[in-house]
Structure prediction request, 307 residues.
Amino acid sequence: MKIAVIGAGAMGSLFGAYLTQAGESVTVVDIWPEHIRAIQKQGLILESANGEQMFPLVATTEIHQLESVDLVILFVKSAATRAAALSAATILRQDGRILTLQNGLGNAETIADVIGRDRVLVGTTAQGATMLGPGRVRHAGQGDTHIGKMQGGVDQFCQDVAAILSRSGLPAFVETDVRGLVWGKLVVNTGINALTALLRLRNGQLVELPETKKLLEMAVAEAVQVAKAAGIQLPYSDPVEKVVSVAIATKNNQSSMLQDILRGSPTEIAVINGAIVREGERLGVATPVNQTLTLLVRSLEKKLSTC
Prediction:
């Protein structure tokens, strides 16, 4: 299968590396020229508990130079989803698909506006990765990936993608309830991302301190109430236990929101904790903890942007 990974940050680079190692035809695309040049010169250096490994990735900043592909995996930030989908549409084969493994709510709908719901795959991943610098990424946590068709059901293409990911060392499973899938990941991110960004903590440190663990529990409890009001069936029975287990499994990882703050980049707070607040307002569910976290992260973003 010919694959393009658009958004070669920590996670996009990680997936590109493993897929390439499995023998798939993969190109990673990103607008960060230093990162792409480093990969072109030395390959991607991936750090893990087993040491360092170099992956000879094909990388470019020029998506228009790519030949047609069967699958695009999207890892861009939510604010760039529409632009990335429009670019992806120019290289997708007629029966090609876009798989979003992004954070937050609304990405699949944005992609569907560009290419149609029947060509969108939706997924979540519990893999953890941290960008260390141009051409260098740390694989900081292992976890499963779950994917499904946006419009429901299961087809051979979706099964093939899951099989390819699993064969590459990224265990993947096909699901039919993608709405529950996305909300399941949203609840996890709600408990981890904003707190790690504000307090400059790695994921595992959140559950080591009683104060931060309590804040995590409060944010998650609000998100669960909003999900219930929206009629969402979460893909796990104990949300707090799930979020804690993810934090422990990715204990050495810097969340994507913390990485954004450390770089002085805009975060995805609007589609994570901010999405809980908006949905809560729509459904009549109070979300004071998530509203506070959202306002604090937005304040920090503005402070960093003026420094």
About this structure: The longest helix spans residues 178-199. Residues 10 and 275 are 24 Å apart (CA to CA). The two ends are 45 Å apart (CA to CA). The first strand starts at residue 2 and ends at 6.
